[in-house]
């Protein structure tokens, strides 16, 4: 779903979120990945980051005050 369409949706038992494009603001990323791991459950978020989006990924790291787990392929 798009960021706008996803707001307000409550889909239980989501275990994984896949981002194929990085949002322009870090708060949207936090909202996206917050769909997984609710109610004390663990969840996994996988984000595909193009070199042109690396600055957006760094903004997310700054917001969450923790590094992302980078894997280069």
UniProtKB/TrEMBL annotation:
Pfam families given in the database record: Helicase_C
InterPro entries reported for this sequence: DEAD_box_RNA_helicase, Helicase_C-like, P-loop_NTPase
Keywords: ATP-binding, Helicase, Hydrolase, Nucleotide-binding
Family matches, as PROSITE patterns: HELICASE_CTER
Keyword Hydrolase set for record: yes
Coiled-coil spans in chain: none
Single GO MF descriptor: hydrolase activity
CDD domains for the chain: SF2_C_DEAD
Listed GO CC annotations: cytosol
Start and end residues of each Helicase C-terminal domain: 1-73
Top-level taxon: Bacteria
Family per similarity comment: Belongs to the DEAD box helicase family.
Protein known as: ATP-dependent RNA helicase DbpA
